[in-house]
């Protein structure tokens, strides 16, 4: 009799009973590992099954697939698989808590259930920051874009509506206030408005990635008890920008007089071309530093609004995790940015598709890396 088992989230086997016993003895197959063989109705934890002996009759556990009520079946519609992120009709899936799982991913999902990772979307995770920092991850750009597209196909209306509303508010308020010609007002709008609204978009997209209920109001959930923490997340980069501007100002004040040339007292002074070299170097250094820091702090906003971290721990945790694969994370952001740009140039309204897809791709990567971190979801 051949056995099959789940190994690192994938089905393995077949193995005969002697090999099965060896795998158990070596620890490859543990008590919680899901196993199956012909004659068994479902995958079961190994502790409940002994090789060579069919499972004894027991009261069957409640089936995972809910039985539809009597009467005409509802029209089939789609949901995203909580494991692979692809869209299927709900008739082809199982429903567990707030999660929908396709038939192909059922063994992997049930393995997680056997290990106690049930209803992931509602519990907010099961590992600590120490565990998260200790483990590794990969950045799969193709998978992120693919899952972002699958997510968009199922939730296009909600995604487009949320993105349009947020950006109309941000840019509309900025334009109106700029007409008043109040100095530095754009920075203040970015500080007090953009951060919470962007965090709300993160929360909405993360909910969609997890397959939980999301609504347009989620885009405004940043205006909550975590509002000031989100403002602080935006304040730190703003202070860095102001600091860089101050450095440029000091450098210009010190060096500019020495590079000014005047042909005679009656002509306006001219700046020497040699001044362009140090200013160009400073500009490149500042640009590289900004991109580096922005990438490191990419996940600070969702960590505040999704996991309940305060602003500084969120900035620190985002940096420590991103630094494991900084270049790959930057490449993901670059591809998503290019995707949004293509939507603008191909057709202005195309960004209403490519923009949400790009945001969804980054959100799926966030969930992949931080999804099972213990937190306090809103």
Can you offer a commentary on this structure?
The structure is a single chain. With 378 residues, this protein is α+β, with helices and mostly antiparallel strands. The chain has three domains: 46 residues, no CATH class; 51 residues, no CATH class; 220 residues, no CATH class. The chain is 55% helix and 9% strand. The chain is built from twelve helices and ten strands. It has a four-stranded antiparallel β-sheet with strand order 2-1-3-4. The chain has a two-stranded antiparallel ribbon with strand order 5-6. The protein has a two-stranded antiparallel ribbon with strand order 7-8. It is elongated, with a radius of gyration of 27 Å. About 9% of the residues have low confidence.
């Amino acid at each position: 009799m051949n056995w099959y088992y789940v190994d690192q989230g994938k089905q393995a086997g077949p193995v005969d009973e002697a090999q099965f016993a060896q795998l158990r003895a070596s620890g490859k197959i543990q008590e919680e590992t899901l196993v199956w063989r012909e004659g068994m109705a479902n995958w079961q934890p190994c502790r409940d099954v002994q090789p060579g002996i069919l499972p004894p009759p027991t009261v069957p556990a409640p089936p995972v697939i809910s039985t539809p009520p009597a009467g005409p079946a509802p029209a089939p519609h789609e949901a995203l698989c909580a494991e692979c992120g692809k869209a299927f009709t709900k008739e082809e899936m199982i429903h567990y808590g707030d999660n929908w799982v396709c038939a192909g991913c059922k063994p992997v999902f049930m393995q997680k259930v056997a290990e106690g990772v049930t209803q992931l979307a509602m519990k907010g995770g099961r590992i600590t920051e120490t565990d998260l920092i200790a483990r590794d991850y990969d950045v799969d750009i193709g998978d992120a874009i693919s899952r972002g597209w699958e997510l968009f196909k199922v939730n296009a209306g909600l995604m487009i509506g949320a993105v349009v509303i947020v950006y109309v508010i941000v840019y509309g308020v900025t334009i109106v206030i700029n007409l008043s010609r109040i100095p530095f007002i754009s920075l203040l709008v970015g500080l007090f408005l953009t951060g919470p609204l962007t965090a709300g978009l993160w929360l909405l997209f993360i909910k969609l990635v997890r397959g939980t209920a999301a609504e347009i109001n989620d885009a405004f959930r940043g205006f909550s008890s975590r509002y000031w923490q989100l403002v602080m997340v935006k304040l730190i980069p703003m202070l860095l920008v102001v600091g860089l501007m101050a450095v440029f100002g000091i450098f210009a004040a010190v060096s500019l007089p020495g590079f000014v040339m005047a042909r005679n007292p009656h002509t306006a002074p001219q700046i020497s071309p040699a001044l362009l070299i140090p200013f160009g170097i400073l500009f490149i250094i500042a640009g590289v530093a900004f991109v580096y820091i922005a990438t490191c702090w990419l996940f600070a906003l969702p960590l505040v609004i999704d996991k309940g971290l305060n602003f500084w721990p969120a900035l620190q945790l985002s940096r420590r995790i991103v630094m494991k694969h900084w270049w790959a994370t930057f490449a993901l952001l670059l591809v998503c940015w290019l995707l949004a740009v293509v939507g603008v140039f191909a057709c202005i309204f195309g960004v209403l598709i490519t923009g949400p897809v790009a945001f969804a791709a980054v959100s799926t990567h966030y969930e992949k890396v931080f999804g099972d971190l213990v937190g306090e979801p809103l």
